[in-house]
Amino acid sequence: MSPLRYQPEKVAVETAYVYEKSNVDGSHKSDIAQYVSSKDSLEAFKWTECESEATLVTAKMDWNCFSVRELSPGRFGQMARELRLRFWTKLKTPIR
Fold first, then answer.
1. I want to staple 80 with a disulfide (CB 3.0 to 4.6 A). Which of 28, 29, 54, 70 is the partner?
2. C-alpha–C-alpha distance, residues 44 and 58, integer Å
3. Nearest Cα to 30, choosing from 42, 22, 38?
4. Is 66 left (phi over 0), alpha (psi -120 to 50) or beta?
5. Which residues contact 48 (CB under 8 A, 6 or more apart)?
């Protein structure tokens, strides 16, 4: 039996996991927010301070295979600042 199995009761819907990522030397820091929007949907938003673009990726999961069933990536230029505000407001997390 595989040690990995889907446990729907453990999926924390409407939970956000926010962290900072960077290169090994600490350069190119970005804020990343991963949001569990439903039992089978995840959203990831990446914002780098002083850059004009942001990235929002949504994924529909296939928990039987522990893989992504549908992936929708997107980069946003002029709308990046507005999208960042909307996303962080949805998470009720302060903007850094």
1. 54
2. 6
3. 22
4. left
5. 28, 29, 30, 31, 54
- Other CB atoms within 10 A of residue 15 CB: 11
Question: For the chain, first and last CA: distance in Å?
Answer: 44
The β-bridge relationship of strands 67-76 and 54-62 is: antiparallel
Please count the other Cβ atoms lying within 10 Å of the Cβ belonging to residue 91: 19
Cα–Cα distance, 2 to 4 (Å, whole number)? 5
Q: At residue 89, what are phi and psi to the nearest 5 degrees?
A: -65, -40
The amino acid at residue 53 is E
Instruction: Tell me the pLDDT tens digit for each residue of 3-62.
Output: 777 888 888 888 888 888 999 999 888 888 888 889 999 988 888 877 777 788 889 999
